[in-house]
């Protein structure tokens, strides 16, 4: 495998997500992304993991709701997901911001498992929404911006599981726009937010994973 340079993505005009579910990584990126999506007309709901797993939790912008998980088991997650959609409407966009600096590999594995379970619960609403307009499943991790190929800095290989999940969903849910993004930890928050939005509007369906780092915007090729 090697890196392949990509140009700046074109912008496909599409309606703003009606209901966007955004996971809380405990950083200002969650706040800025939620604010930007809300300003674009989306109903944004932030899903926060238990404080024992992600101890940082910043105040959210006005109008952005928060749903808290008090446990990391499937029954509780699916109950909260159902209650969320009853209150705010069916979800048509999901964005996972993977937390950095987690306390242990076991904590990170538990959060990664939650994203797999969320995908299970979101299959029906995302595929249904895709019949009318673009619905999205987006995952963002902070490896090195080059899918681990830069040989610079340490990163958790556990987070790389998000790329396998997202690529699998792209095959299983062909109508849903699926994109996995690897950011360099040095990227500024405003760059992260603008890049996520740009990827969500990318008309190119031939790529599923994109990296942003010292090599610019890249993907993998053989």
Produce the secondary structure layout:
Blueprint: E1 2-5, E2 19-23, H1 28-39, E3 43-48, E4 65-68, H2 74-88, E5 93-97, H3 105-129, E6 136-141, H4 161-172, E7 177-183, H5 189-200, E8 209-213, E9 216-221
Parallel strand pairs: 2-3, 2-5, 3-4, 5-6, 6-7, 7-8
Antiparallel strand pairs: 1-9, 8-9
Brief descriptors of the model:
globular; 9-stranded mixed β-sheet; single chain; alpha/beta; 22% strand; 222 residues; 9 strands; 34% helix
In words, what does this structure look like?
By secondary structure, this protein is an alpha/beta fold. Helix content is 34%, strand content 22%. It has five helices and nine strands. The chain has a nine-stranded mixed sheet with strand order 1-9-8-7-6-5-2-3-4, sandwiched between helices. Helix 1 (28-39) packs across helix 5 (189-200) and helix 3 (105-129) runs parallel beside helix 4. The longest helix has 25 residues, at 105-129. The model has no long low-confidence stretch (mean pLDDT 96).
Largest beta sheet: what is the strand line-up? 1-9-8-7-6-5-2-3-4
Distance between the termini: 5 Å
How many helices? The count is 5
* Average of pLDDT: 96
SS-based class: alpha/beta
- What is the ordering of alpha helices and beta strands? EEHEEHEHEHEHEE
Short structural description:
The chain has 222 residues and is of the alpha/beta class. It contains five helices and nine strands.
């Amino acid at each position: 495998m090697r890196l392949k340079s990509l140009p700046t993505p074109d912008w496909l005009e599409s309606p703003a997500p009606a209901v966007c579910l955004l996971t809380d990584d405990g950083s200002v990126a969650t706040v800025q992304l939620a604010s930007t999506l809300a300003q674009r007309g989306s109903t944004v709901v932030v899903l926060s993991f238990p404080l024992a797993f992600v101890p940082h939790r910043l105040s959210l912008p006005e109008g952005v709701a928060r749903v808290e998980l008090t446990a990391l088991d499937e029954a509780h997650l699916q109950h909260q997901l159902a209650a969320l959609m009853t209150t705010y409407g069916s979800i048509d966009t999901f964005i996972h911001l993977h937390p950095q600096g987690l306390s242990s590999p076991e904590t990170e594995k538990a959060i990664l498992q939650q994203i797999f379970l969320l995908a299970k619960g979101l299959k029906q609403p995302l595929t249904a929404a895709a019949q009318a307009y673009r619905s999205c499943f987006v995952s963002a991790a902070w490896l090195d911006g080059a899918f681990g190929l830069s040989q610079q800095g340490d990163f958790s290989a556990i987070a790389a599981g998000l790329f396998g999940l997202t690529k699998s969903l792209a095959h299983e849910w062909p109508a849903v726009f699926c994109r996995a993004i690897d950011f360099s930890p040095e990227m500024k928050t405003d760059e992260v937010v603008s890049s996520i939005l740009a990827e969500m509007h990318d008309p190119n369906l031939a790529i599923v994973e994109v990296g942003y780092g010292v090599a610019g915007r890249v993907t993998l090729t053989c």
